[in-house]
Each structure stands twice: as C-alpha cells, then as structure tokens.
Amino acid sequence: MQMPTQTLFINASQIVTCSGPPRARRAAELRDAGVLTNAAVATEGERIVAVGPQDQLEREHPKATRIDCERGVLTPGLVDSHTHGIFGKPRFEEQELRAAGLGYMEIAKQGGGIHSSVRDLRVRTEDELFALALPRVRRLAAYGTTTVELKSGYGLTLDDELKSLRVIRRLQHALAIRIVPTFLGAHEIPLEYRAKPRTRQEYIALVVDEMIPRVALEKLATFADIFCEPGVYTLDESRKILGAARTHGLALKLHADELEPGGAAELAAELGATSADHLAAISDAGIKALAASQTVATLLPGTMLFLGKSKQAPARALIAAGAAIALATDFNPGTSPTVNFPLMLTLAVSQLHLSVAEALIAATTNGAAALGLAAETGQLSPGFSADLALFDIGDIRELPYWYGDQRCRRSWARGNACHG
Ligand code: NIG
Ligand code: FE
To answer: How is 380-396 classified by DSSP, letter by letter?
Structure first.
C-alpha cells in the first residue's frame, strides 16, 4: 500500500491555528485565535497530523516534502458558508438604480432583482452554467477560501433547481475546494405564481411535494434554505417548507431578518437550524433566541455595504449575549458580487466592531460550524482536514488591514492545491 504523502509547512512568520473544541466558539472563546511563531504544520495526505515547534517537527518528519511559507502567515482555509454562486449574467445595472434611490424590494417588485436572475438562469444550459461557475469558484479560492457553500435558488422550477444543483455536483468533481450544496427553491415566489391561475400556495406545494423529495432522493443537497422575510416567505410558510426539508433529511438554513425584523431568527432557533444568516434587522428577542440555541448567526457585512445601507447586524450584541457568529461573503449577482473573503474580515473589524481574532474564528471554525463541519475543518489541529491558506503578510492583523487586496499566495483543501 502506498503511504500518504507527508508534507511539512515551514518558515511561516505566524501560524494561526484557531484550534480548540470542534464546535462553534462563543463569547471569550472568540478572543484567542492561537498565534504561533517558529512553528510548523505536518500533514499526511488529506489530514493534519501535527502542529508544533518547527525544529521538533523537522526532526520528527525527516522525509516530508517541505513547503516553504517564506515568512507568510498560515491560517486554516477560510470557510465561506453562504454564497449564491450559481447564476448566469451579472446584474450591474441595478447598482445605479439603487444609487438613484430605488430600494432592493422596489427593484424586485418591478421584476428585477432575484427575478431577473431567474429569467436568465432558466434559459441557460447546465453546461453553460458550469462554465460560468467554474472561474467564479476559482476566484473565491484565490482569496483563501477552501470550503464554500453554494446555493441553488435562481431556477425556481423543478428542472431549473435540479439543473443548478447538478452544476454544483459537477464543480465538486472538477475542483479541489470543498463544496457544500444547498437547495434554495424557496428563494422567492416566482412571478408566474403570483397571478391567476396560479397561486403562491401552489408554488409552496411544488417545493414541498416535488422539489424537496427529488433533491433528497438524488442526494443533491446537504441543506435547505429559505428567504424568510416580510414580503417574501412568511414564518408559517417557512415552517412548512423547512419542516418538509427536515423530514427528508436536509439540514436547515434561513435567510433571516435581513431587511426587516420578522421573527425569522427565533424561527431558526425553534427549528434547530444549523444557521440563521444576514440578521441586520434582528430583534432583541431574536438575539436571545439565537444565543440560547445551537444555531450559528452568520453575518454578511458585504451585503449591507453593497446595498448602500448604514445598518449592519448587531455583532457585538450577539457575541455579548453568547451567540456563535460566523462570517461569509453572500457572493451573489444582486447584493454582494464579491469573491473577496478577507474583505469581509475588514468589514467585520471596521463595521461590526470585531477584533481580528473574532473575525478570523468567525471565518474559519464558526463558518465550519455553520456547515455542520466543525469537526472536519476550520482549525489547524491534528486530525482535521489539511485545509490551509498562506497569505503574503507577516502578521495576521494585516489580513483585514490591506483592505480589498489579494494576499492569498497558496491554499490547499484536503491536502490538494486549490490556489497557487
Ligand atoms: O442573500 N436575500 C436574498 N438573497 C440574496 C440576494 C439575491 C439576489 O438579489 O440575487 C441575499 O442577499
Ligand atoms: Fe444570501
């Protein structure tokens, strides 16, 4: 039997491990990201086998292939737990409408927003969507992301949702980055179900009776998500759809309290959802409910920035209450067309008032927890997946500091190169 390749990552100026219990971190646990100097990481095939003093690891692994980090900073690969990476055309025309004063929901009411991406995705083939998604996911990896969640949600018919999820499956085979698929058939009520003879109840029945069973049968998704927001899906509709998803073995996520408070965070906690995402408009009761639950509060500061809103999720209040927070890009063509995860760390520090350690743990360990992967990735510890990112900086505090820059030199997922 062939022995798995041993690799030793040496000569980093810092190794930031984020090591600790294999679950989401809260409160004071978020304060220390574990910065090591004169340290090395040893991997064997897909796994990390040791993290410790470089001279010791060099003695213990004499035959390992050396990767010289050239005084860069080595971190766990970033875990982007919320993206809508499967879409056709970009929607750059909407930014000027917003600049002229039109709101996100107003653009949607005029048939723009999600509906415009839906019209576009429906006329594209699976091959075409795959060809568009491939370089986009590579770009995400180029910024240090080694695990990415990808949602469907711009199809909104059985065939178009399956088409999107099959594109995700093909990406899983084509790329080294770890990809987690999410079914988001409840992203919107499609326009054709808003006027007679069709009703929104019929669309919800389609999601519950046909889409979810088929997605589960073909094992095309790990999670089901929903846009639970006043004007989109109500709390009762969300309960029904997510209940069906859970019955079919899917874990749950919610787009919750993004623009207006509506009790979606409370619902996420009640249903035991893996994460509740956005939360810019979460209520005090929502904060309490999340803090008392296992549900990860995933914050997406790029979305509020790009929509031109001054409001951001109350990250400090969430942390103070004891909630587990994660960060993600929300990469999508309408509200957050960025692949730059380190830029989210900048926004986390400058807009959400997080420390660098809090932001980094939220982007690694807690991102992994938001995908049910906290025992697999998100920290540099023995036994974990060999998911690493090497940045061209000398101190971890530079990662959010050089904002907008592309500092990731190389990254690996399961020991395989994702970037560089
Ligand atoms: O996370 N809020 C709903 N979904 C996306 C936006 C989708 C779009 O505008 O295309 C979001 O912001
Ligand atoms: Fe989203």
So the answer is: --TTSB--EEEES-SST
